[in-house]
């Protein structure tokens, strides 16, 4: 990959990873409710799950999704339904529930799996692979793009989780945490509304 393309890809990855979106809202909520350390599986699930998705889209699925409106719409609506559910769980409990009803952070595989139904993630994956995957060297360029997104994803999710944990230390008392969770749930729901408009 030429150095100019690599610089453009890195800039795009940083911008896409750090700007607000469903992943960053969810990991910030995890930081608030569970702290940075307990959010590490979620952080790694975002970074590696999204990088793997980009790799697979770059090698196999990019053309399929670009050509199939039905498939794109089905995935979009599945993602929207899941985001509404997650927004509700954050607003009412602070996270996903365990068997005993207590809130818990996302596990690695849940965060990685979420990337496959995240509408913003799919839109970016298709745009990224169409711009940065070299048809003459699909494996090498897909691996390069995936690696860049692993680095950007870990940095971004770590920052958002850390910011969440810092906010949590300033929320004195459970009532403020409850209201903050409601606000984060509303933020995730707002992303759903934006996705419905696009």
Mean pLDDT: 81
Total helical segments = 8
Radius of gyration over C-alpha positions, nearest whole angstrom: 17 Å
What spatial form do the alpha-carbon principal axes imply? globular
Main sheet, how many strands, which sense, barrel?
2 strands, antiparallel
Structural domain tally: 1
**Quaternary organization:** single chain
Beta-strand proportion: under 5%
Question: Which tags fit this structure?
Answer:
single chain, 198 residues, mainly alpha, two-stranded antiparallel sheet
What does this structure look like?
Helix 3 (40-67) crosses helix 7 (138-170). Helix content is 83%, strand content 2%. The protein has one domain (3-197). With 198 residues, it is mostly helical.
List the helices and strands and how they pair.
Elements: H1 3-18, H2 22-38, H3 40-67, H4 69-93, E1 96-97, E2 103-104, H5 108-114, H6 119-132, H7 138-170, H8 174-197
Antiparallel strand pairs: 1-2
Helix pairs in contact: 1-7, 2-3, 2-7, 2-8, 3-5, 3-6, 3-7, 4-8
Short recap of the structure:
This protein has helices spanning 3-18, 22-38, 40-67, 69-93, 108-114, 119-132, 138-170, 174-197, and strands at residues 96-97, 103-104.
């Amino acid at each position: 990959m030429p150095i100019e393309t690599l610089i453009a890809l890195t800039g795009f990855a940083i911008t896409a990873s750090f700007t607000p979106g469903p992943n960053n809202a969810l990991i910030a909520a995890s930081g608030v409710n569970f702290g940075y350390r307990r959010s590490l599986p979620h952080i790694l699930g975002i970074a590696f799950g999204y990088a793997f998705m980009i790799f697979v889209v770059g090698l196999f699925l990019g053309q399929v999704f670009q050509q199939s409106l039905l498939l794109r719409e089905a995935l979009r609506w599945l993602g929207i339904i899941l985001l509404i559910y997650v927004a509700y769980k954050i607003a009412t409990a602070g996270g996903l529930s365990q068997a005993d009803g207590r809130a818990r952070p996302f596990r690695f595989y849940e965060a990685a799996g979420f990337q496959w139904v995240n509408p913003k993630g799919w839109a970016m994956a298709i745009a990224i692979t169409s711009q940065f995957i070299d048809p003459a060297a699909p494996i090498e360029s897909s691996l390069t793009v995936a690696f860049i997104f692993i680095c950007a994803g870990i940095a971004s999710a770590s920052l958002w989780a850390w910011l969440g944990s810092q906010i949590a230390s300033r929320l004195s008392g459970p009532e403020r945490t409850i209201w903050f969770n409601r606000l984060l749930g509303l933020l995730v729901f707002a992303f759903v509304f934006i996705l419905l408009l696009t």
